[in-house]
Design a protein that fits this description.
The protein has nine helices and ten strands. It has 224 residues and is α+β, with helices and mostly antiparallel strands. It has one domain. It is elongated. It starts with a helix and ends with a helix.
């Protein structure tokens, strides 16, 4: 990874409410993840604390915590113990996205040495490989080493299309239609100004499905 790419991924560009909306978790839950408490430290270490600002890496870490908390119902204390174990085995500044996590919905696993899976939440016992998380499949690295993040729009499902993407090198990391720099926020604003889906699709040379997905995504943000 080049220095320029790393800078893109580490630049503080998102606010707390913004990230909570993107990864579909309550605002107070996200605050706990980044602040911790008197007895425990934060699960996600922000690149900027005053004011709290998230990097693209931080956004992906919260996406993975959301997976563990919601999709797989892993208790946060178990995730915390897993990360402590991971730090001992494979130190990393962003362990939630730097390593390939797997889960059997009870315990958390990480790909360690070749052909071995370290069962993190049991203190490092070797476990068996169960399932690659649906959430990790929403994170893809491009040819430049940058990362495309495809947020869930309607539901957390493998069937969810990847029509909306976030990349720190495109539109300042804001959501756009995949393969373009077309802002979902601009599409939704024009739609709510009474421009039709057909008109928008024709002007932007995109399919009606892409335009509808952009509007759907922005509508979900408003609801959140």
């Amino acid at each position: 990874m080049t220095i320029e790419t790393k800078e893109f991924l580490e630049t503080p560009i998102y606010g707390t409410k913004e990230v909570a909306s993107y990864v579909r978790v309550p605002y107070q839950t996200l605050r706990y993840w980044i602040r911790g408490s008197e007895s425990v430290g934060p699960l996600v270490k922000l690149v900027s604390l005053t004011p709290p600002r998230f990097s693209f890496y931080n956004l992906l870490e919260c996406h993975m915590l959301s997976a563990m908390r919601g999709f797989y119902s892993l208790p946060i204390p178990k995730v915390r113990r897993a990360l402590v174990t991971l730090e001992r085995f494979l130190p990393s500044p962003h362990p939630l996205v730097d390593r390939q996590f797997l889960t059997d919905k009870v315990d958390l696993f990480v790909q360690g040495l070749p052909n071995e899976i370290v069962n993190l939440s049991r203190g490092g016992q070797l476990g068996i490989r169960e399932i690659l998380t649906t959430h990790l499949e929403r994170i893809e690295q491009d040819a430049r080493g940058l990362i495309n993040f495809f947020p869930f729009v309607e539901e957390r499902s493998p069937a969810e299309p990847k029509l909306i993407v976030m990349n720190p090198a495109v539109a300042f990391g804001k959501p756009v239609i995949t393969g373009t720099g077309i802002s979902t926020a601009v599409i939704a604003a024009r739609f709510h100004a009474r421009e039709s889906i057909s008109e928008l699709a024709d002007e932007y040379k995109r399919s009606k499905e892409e335009i509808e997905e952009a509007i759907r995504w922005e509508s979900k943000q408003l609801a959140a």
